[in-house]
Structures are given as structure tokens and as C-alpha cells.
Amino acid sequence: MELNRIENRNIHATRFEFPTIEFDPAGAILTFDKPYRCTSFDIVAKLKTYIRRELNLKIKVGHAGTLDPLATGLMIVCVGSSTKKIDSLMGMEKEYTGTIQLGATTSSFDLEKEINETFPYDHITEEMVFQAAQQFMGDQEQIPPHYSAVRINGKRAYDLARDGQEIEIKPKQINISEFEITRIALPDVYFRIVCSKGTYIRSIARDFGDALDTGAHLTALRRTRIGNFKVEDAIVPIVTAQ
Question: What sections of the chain are H helices per DSSP?
Fold first, then answer.
């Protein structure tokens, strides 16, 4: 993932088109491989436009779980009567792969914001990294990032954060069933995680740094599975401009 800061998501958004999609507009569950620098709303809005243009229909379209703009990978989008299944789809476990960079933090816990503080990491060994991952297994409470879609008194946390307001977000109950360290090339740690609904991988990156007595932030994230839906079976949008 590029070490860029994305302050204005509209200016920097990836442009894309869909290939020809065959589905039943009365009720369908579609999966997409969301591009980098593209919002979940972009996918839904583009699909609505596609349906109106290609099928001359105006029907319900909604996604079953958002992905950050800087993340790529699997998104489930429901069309027509299948939108009734969104809640059950959102409750499925999710699998991610990604990269945590040790030794530095950002206010967004990823690359959306610039590095705001650096920390030594030369005391960290590979054994410590593996041991830290084991600490995150099971049921636990997690505090979502300030730059997140969590609602606080009716407003999104990211809107309050961008306005410079003080934010207190209550912890949420999550579960991590698998946390595999797939490669270590300090300061970068590559991982695979299987987790419950509502888990913020950016918060895991922050907390992972704390567990190793350093700072950390997420530099790459890809959602590879939701329940039995896999990203390799998803529709791949055609990127036209970045």
C-alpha cells in the first residue's frame, strides 16, 4: 500500500466501472472486490447507476458491511428482496490479511493521516511478535478508532474527529478466533485475522503496538472472506483512474 495521506476522499477517489453483471434484479446477493481508495458507498452508488442504466429499474441496493477507503477486498451487496438478508450477512465472521508497521502511530491508525509520533522498536524480537498475537485471541473489548463510522449522539465519530472535537467512544465486545503472523520483516508485520462483526483491524494495529511497548499503525488491509463468501469469487471492478 502506498504511503500516502488521503485528506479529501473525493479528490483522491479511485474511478471504476463494472464489467457486465448478470443477476436477478428482483433479489440477488452480489460480491465485489473493492478497489483501493474507493468507499463502500461508491460501490453501492455505482451499482444503482448500473441497474438504472442497463435495466431501467430503480430498486433497493445495500451493502452488508463497510470497508475503509484504504482497504481492498470483499464486499457483499444485496439487491431487491435480498436486502432483507443484510443483517444476517453482516453477522458472519470475517477474514482479513494485512500489514502492521511498528514504530510509528497516526491519528487514524492507518495511512489516512500522517505519522504523528515515532517510537523505538529495536527491542522487539520475532518471538515477542508471535506472543503478542496470542494475547488478542478470544472474546475481548475493543475501542473503535476516532476516525470511524461509530455514532456518538447521532453523529459519526469521523465527522466529530475532523472537526477537532473531543471524543469518547465506548468499547465494544468482539471476538478474534484466529490471529496468524504470516511474515515478519521489522518494522513490518504481516498477518491474517479471522474475527467477529464490528472488529476494527485498525484498532488491533494500535493495540498490537501497545502490547509490544511501541507504536503501530495499519499500512495494508484486505478482506478475503465473509462467512462462506470468498474474494476470489467476487466481481472485480475495472479501475479507470486513480
Answer: 9-12, 40-55, 86-90, 126-134, 157-162, 201-211
